Amino acid sequence: MAGIVEGRVVVVTGAGRGLGRAHALAFAAEGAKVVVNDVGAELDGSGGATGPAGEVVDAIRGMGGEAVVNADDVSSWDGAANIIATAVDAFGKLDVLVNNAGIVRDRMAVSMEEHEIDAVLAVHLKGTLATMRHAANHWRERAKAGEDPQGRIINTSSGAGLHGSIGQTVYSAAKAGITAATLVAAAEMGRYGVTANAIAPAARTRMTEGAFAEMMAQPEKGAFDAMAPENVSPLVVWLGSEQSRDVTGRVFELEGGLIMVAEGWDRGPQIDKGDRWEPSELGPVVTDLLSKARSPFPVHGT
């Protein structure tokens, strides 16, 4: 029986470890050909090696699948272009882009350094935008040639990007930016047969093991491991399939066996004076509006 992504070509960035590794293996298990991108860097983005990505490729080939390594840096414009080109050169096309690569430089707002801001935004936000741009051009060209690309973009946001997280101002801002960029990509790329969605996963990775040690602890033997990264991948694979053609511009929060649709910055209570407000009269107005609004989801870590 063929898998739901049989023959589709998938790029997974940051696929050497954690969630990216789980995604790459899950796609391969369902019949996809996979470009395993990973620079092999440390958690803070320093260093680099192709070892982890090579191990994932070996695992995919060991199960009878097809995969190649790409070690380009997503935060480099040319590197992002080469990641997409690797898929086309190796397998003739690209069908699915999974943006997963990321680093952390957690700091409270009073301690943030410029170089840390630049590094986190470069990998998470610029890296996502750059790979999307080059993939979008590939799909647009195919659409203009008369094809129906059925392209899929699956970006990785975070609960930190949706709700905020203490000590992660920059990371949260980057992940929120990814969410907004996903919504725009969905609106722009639909005409070319491309969907764009995002996930906000809770899972055990190098990023979360230290920051949320208690939450990410291994369960007792035999118990369901809710924080295993493999729990996140089934929805990612489905979103990468042709079955998901009618789902776009959505954000899904995932934890264990739980799937939640994020409702985002929806409009709440409102009032229209029909004229300009005076600053002195706005206190009671704002108080009344907030009394009718839903309470925001609490910032993580509070």
Query: First CA to last CA: what distance?
Result: 48 Å
Count of individual domains: 1
The proportion of residues in beta strands is 5-15%
- The global form is globular
Name given to the CATH architecture: 3-Layer(aba) Sandwich
Helix content: 25-40%
Biggest sheet statistics: 8 strands, mixed
Radius of gyration: 20 Å
* Class based on secondary structure composition and strand pairing: alpha/beta
Q: Which CATH C-level class is it?
A: Alpha Beta
According to CATH, what is the topology? Rossmann fold
**CATH superfamily name?**
NAD(P)-binding Rossmann-like Domain
* Overall pLDDT metric: 91
Helix and strand run: EHEHEHEHEHHEHHEEH
Q: Count the E strands.
A: 8
Main sheet strand line-up: 3-2-1-4-5-6-7-8
Low-confidence stretches: 41-49
**Helix count from the secondary structure assignment:** 9
Brief write-up:
The chain has a single domain (9-261), classed as 3-Layer(aba) Sandwich (Rossmann fold). Helix content is 40%, strand content 14%.
